[in-house]
Amino acid sequence: MKKLKRYQYERYAVLCNLAYQKVLKQTRYGFAPNGQRVIANRFGQPMIRVLWGHHNDEVIVVIKGSHNVWDWLLNGHCWFTSCREWGLNYSIHSGYHKLISQESMPTHKHDHLGINVFERLLEILSQLINQQKKRITFTGHSSGGAVACVLADAIETHFPRSVKRVVTFGQPAVGGWSMKRHYQLGHKTYRVCCDLDVVTFLPPLPFVYWHIGKILWLYNGRIYENTSTLIRLGRSLTSWVIRPFSYHLMSKYIRNKDFFDER
Q1: pTM over 0.70
Q2: Which residue(s) pair with 224 in the sheet?
Q3: Which residues touch 176 (CB under 8 Å, ≥6 apart)?
Q4: Domain boundaries, the chain
Q5: What's the pLDDT score for residue 88?
Q6: pLDDT above 90 as % of the chain
């Protein structure tokens, strides 16, 4: 597995943050004037942004996390639903399945009613892959990260070797052991977790849900790779317990020297 470079991390993180805004002016971030397509959810709200430029082969698919009451309620649908209609040989979290299979409202002159989110994405990406030879990076925050993994795997099934990488931020688990076994992009998937982000431990069903890909844990000023969930939880809870005493260490006093003016 290749390493995730700092500039790539920053680019995807910024785009995931911007995805929550109503409008994203893609030309400010190096994409082409016509290099954006918005995929809306059933309420007509932006859910996915497909971004590309003319001078490189990368298309970035940015998926927003939960952003309405319906989305939040779906996070509790922890039973499994099959993904065979997308060509995938496993089941996933039923709530995230509903996000992908919901009808997508038209946002573009070429869009039409009656197709779901996955079908809309497939329609857009098929042109970019077949006509412009683009390769696809998927990124998303929270439930958007979970959806990104499933969509990336489905696109890879339809267009082999078309997915460049998958980068998620604060992502909950999306599938069980069957998904872990059959997921094709484990060597291209980076799951970024910051400190004790409680969402990354969800759903709270150990040995029922399994994470996929390589975890990059940002903790205590360092990056830890592939730290197990139990170790991550244990270290974080221990840190909480001893944190009040850590402020007594001289290293803390030395670190805070910048509070004082030079004389």
Answers
A1: yes
A2: 217
A3: 80, 90, 91, 208, 209, 210
A4: 6-259
A5: 97
A6: 67
Structure tokens at 162: 């078309």
pLDDT tens profile 18-74: 999 989 999 999 999 999 999 999 999 999 999 999 889 999 999 999 888 888 899
Q: Hey, which bits of the chain come out as E strands?
A: 36-40, 46-52, 58-63, 80-82, 91-93, 135-141, 163-169, 189-194, 214-219, 222-225
Q: What is the DSSP letter of 228?
A: -
Tokens of 108: 């573009």
Q: How confident is the model at residue 235 (pLDDT cuts 50, 70, 90)?
A: confident
Q: Report d(CA 220, CA 193) in Å as an integer.
A: 12
Contact 81, 97 (CB under 8 A): yes
Which candidate, 39, 49, 43, places its Cα nearest to that of 14?
49
CATH of region 6-259: 3.40.50.1820
Q: What angle do CA 12, 182, 132 make, to 5 degrees?
A: 45
Whether a cis peptide bond, with omega within 30° of 0, leads into 204 is no
Structure tokens of 169?
């931020």
Distance separating alpha carbons of residues 229 and 232, to the nearest angstrom: 5
Encode 216-233: b = buried (16+ Cβ within 10 Å), e = exposed: bbebeeeeeeeeeeeebe
* Each residue's pLDDT tens digit, 81-105: 999 999 999 999 999 999 999 999 9
Q: Rounded to whole angstroms, how far apart are CA atoms 135 and 175?
A: 25
